[in-house]
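Sequence in, structure out. First:
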Amino acid sequence: MSSGPYLHGHHASVLRSHSWRTVDNSCPHLLPHLNNPSLRILDAGCGPGTISVDLAARIPLGSVLAIDPSVEVIEKARRHAEEKGVTNVRFEVGDIFNWNAIEGIEEGGFDIVHAHQVLQHLQDPLCAMKEMKKLTRKGGIVAVRDCDFSAMNHYPPHEGMSKWLDLYRSTAKSIKCDPDIGKRLHAIAMQAGFLRDDIDVSVSAWTFSTPAERAWWCGLWAERSTKSDYKARVLESGLGTEEDLEEIARTWREMEGKEDGWFAVINGEVVAHNRV
């Protein structure tokens, strides 16, 4: 099994978003568990590696192995680690479904297996969760965070924003992905074999409201709508047209200019303790 098509691709507008992510702004649920400098962590679907490098810097006696199917982003991640001077992180091309092909990965070999905004892009997130559990030592944890697009919100109201959200969710579902998976991460963990009492569930949000935040968030979505692989997915699905996407891009630019603009991205989080 492979990870399947990635809805967004790796356009600059996508990587700009991913490269902004750190442990503090993207892994609040994981912070209490980074209390041992010798941890061994697997970061699955690491993208350009900013979270991976941040994790490695926090465990100087430990190590992070980070994997992603994209050769392009793995090279970017390696450069980022070099620029930061972090040497206890290793980046390899691969995915959670084919971990056997990656040197240094073995069952029960990690204290923490982490995945951020990954399960929503997989056709079989349950299988991925089972593999993550398999790679976690007894007493270790699987930490997963994904957004729930159905819970995203914005102000002021704009018809074009509703059109964007409907089209995005429909397109994701057309390739058998779940854009709303953040609300059921705990259920997937239970199906993967974790006991409910061993699963900690939390919610956190990204909020974009200042002029700088709006410019960044709206700008990258305006570009993503017309220049990334997402555009091709929309057109292939027949759910939208180029005109629809151009209209949505204009909507994002309009929202960027709203002085009272506000956006909330709701993220579901689980820390599943592997005690069985």
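Second:
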Amino acid sequence: MSSSDTIKQATETARSKTSEAMEKTKQLADAAKTQPVEAKNDFLHTPFMRAALPFINGGTAGMVATTVIQPIDMIKVRLQLAGEGARTGPKPTPLSVTKEIIAAGKVMDLYTGLSAGLLRQAVYTTARLGLFDTFMIALTKRAKDKGNKIGFVERAGAGLGAGGLAAMIGNPADLALIRMQSDGLKPAAQRNNYRSVIHALTSIAKTEGVGALWAGAAPTVVRAMALNFGQLAFFSEAKQQLKDTALSQRAQTLSASAIAGFFASFFSLPFDFVKTRLQKQQRRPDGTLPYKGMFDCFRKVAKDEGLLRFYRGFGTYYVRIAPHAMVTLIVADYLGFITK
């Protein structure tokens, strides 16, 4: 064999080896890129994670929204508690309440009860959005098996059921939030000065009994059912109706959440008002309570303060509910998209 043939053969061999090495390197690189994604996808699609994700996404979305909206919620509660038992008198406004809170302390007082608000979202919103998605999946499957499409009635039923069950679970945190936000209205000597949501819960259970943590549970459940009916059912229905329009996906979600926020506010405010009054009340020196229950509170407020009192602060409530609904639903929608 000539030297030129030897060199040619060596060159071909080297080229072949180089090509094999490059191909192997490319395969390893591709594997390195795809394996983490595959591992992630495999983890997200395990039966446990598929069942848990609606709850995780819902709780995360609710906590993000509460952090943004907490100051408005504080003002809403103070508006509902102002002028209790009197039909006439000064009519507070969101601006006057805000000025009063800031003048009495500092700007961060608007975030009083944030720990309770976050705990409530971690429990309540996790449960209500998680249960709603779980119910919707089951209802959609049942409708598909029958050759039908899911309708507004099924969406409304899922929203009502999820809201009621979640409200019962989250009532103690909701009660602690109201107590923390209303504590500043008392004379300094009578304040409980709750340090955190845990301190509030333990103090209430110790002084009033564990059962007191479910004070106002009836209107809380009805409020949650009304709010969920307005928020989740109308959000789901609006998204379905806007699906074939020229609006972008983001615009559809924003529009649907704004519509849901309005209906959620309208249906739930009277029950939210009564819930706040019942959860704020404490026993008088003679051991009696101002209100015996939800219906007694409705009756006394209507008689002593007028029917329109139930919708006092609707603007503030809408500004609190609508953005909260929008942030919650948009974040939950996005988390659902990236984890599907």
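Remark: The CA atoms of residues 140 and 146 lie 10 Å apart.
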